[in-house]
């Protein structure tokens, strides 16, 4: 009974991983891409780990998968946060459809939003 | 004191990872965990007694399902935005104010915000957090704090403070 549930969770995880990759291609700037890839890839890989745990039970492999899932939940947001802060300090502009940039107003002296290109 | 607690937690983690009581594994584990304790023990929490207070563990166990449910919602939200042909996004960076005081609670709040629908932490500056929001509903500090952070703060305050 456990085995089909484990496989279903693994496939849901793979599906979300693929969605994260698609978001990486479709979204316009680095911040939105980080949003898509961080959320989807974290839950997707966490799902794969939980699925392996359900398939293998309390064997060495299952326990390792569970611990890896826990570490992933703790470290993946921190890595994304570091990338985002790095690109903010580097001065990467936001996409031209962005509506507000409080960080740029407070810290960088003006909104860091890309200007729309003028038609020739 | 906190070095001892750190050592015990690290060694339990090592035992779970290897799952064997072979003498070689135990000696290697003691050496590795000792090194880790010497290098990183100074960054550990000041009051390790908090690990033994049961009501904190109780609220942590309640918090985990809430958090995983929020993660699932976040992924369905991103899936909708990725697969929609017109790509409905309206991004922006806004500022919220948190009522949490300790550093570890702020770290967990930032991590939780990153993994929940449409929001992602850019920077923590004292009591203020800068949030990248993929669909900006409001740019006022109070209203945005209520929408984004309140639901987590009531759990995190009980766990960490």
From TrEMBL, chain A:
It comes from the Bacteria. The keyword Membrane applies. GO terms for molecular function: sodium:proton antiporter activity. Keywords: Membrane, Transmembrane, Transmembrane helix. InterPro entries: PhaG_MnhG_YufB. The chain crosses the membrane at residues 6-25, 37-55. Pfam families: PhaG_MnhG_YufB. This is Cation:proton antiporter. The lineage of its organism: Bacteria, Bacteria division TA06.
TrEMBL record, chain B:
The chain crosses the membrane at residues 5-21, 27-45, 57-76. It is found in: Cell membrane. Its main location: membrane. InterPro entries: Cation_antiport_E. Belongs to the CPA3 antiporters (TC 2.A.63) subunit E family. PANTHER family: NA(+)/H(+) ANTIPORTER SUBUNIT E1, NA(+)_H(+) ANTIPORTER SUBUNIT E1. This is Cation:proton antiporter. The lineage of its organism: Bacteria, Bacteria division TA06.
């Amino acid at each position: 009974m456990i085995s089909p549930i484990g496989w279903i969770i693994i496939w849901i995880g793979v599906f979300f991983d693929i969605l994260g990759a698609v978001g990486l291609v479709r979204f316009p700037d680095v911040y939105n891409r980080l949003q898509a890839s961080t959320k989807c890839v974290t839950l997707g890989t966490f799902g794969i780990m939980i699925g392996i745990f359900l398939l293998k039970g309390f064997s060495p492999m299952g326990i390792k998968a569970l611990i890896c899932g826990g570490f992933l939940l703790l470290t993946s947001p921190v890595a994304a946060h570091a990338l985002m802060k790095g690109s903010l300090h580097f001065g990467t502009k936001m996409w031209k459809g962005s509506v507000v940039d409080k960080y740029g107003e407070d810290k960088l002296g003006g909104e860091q939003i890309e200007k729309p290109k003028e038609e020739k | 004191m906190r070095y001892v607690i750190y050592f015990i937690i690290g060694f339990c983690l090592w035992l779970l990872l290897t799952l064997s009581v072979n003498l070689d594994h135990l000696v290697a584990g003691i050496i590795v965990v000792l090194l880790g304790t010497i290098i990183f023990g100074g960054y550990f929490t000041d009051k390790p007694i908090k690990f033994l207070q049961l009501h904190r563990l109780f609220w942590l166990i309640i918090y985990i399902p809430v958090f995983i449910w929020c993660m699932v919602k976040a992924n369905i939200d991103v899936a909708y935005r990725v697969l929609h042909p017109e790509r409905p996004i309206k991004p922006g960076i806004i500022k919220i104010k948190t009522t949490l005081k300790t550093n570890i609670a702020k770290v967990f709040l930032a991590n939780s915000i990153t993994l929940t629908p449409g929001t992602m932490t850019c920077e923590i500056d004292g009591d203020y957090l800068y949030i990248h929001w993929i669909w900006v509903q409001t740019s006022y500090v109070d209203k945005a704090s209520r929408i984004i952070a309140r639901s987590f703060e009531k759990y995190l305050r009980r766990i960490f403070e």
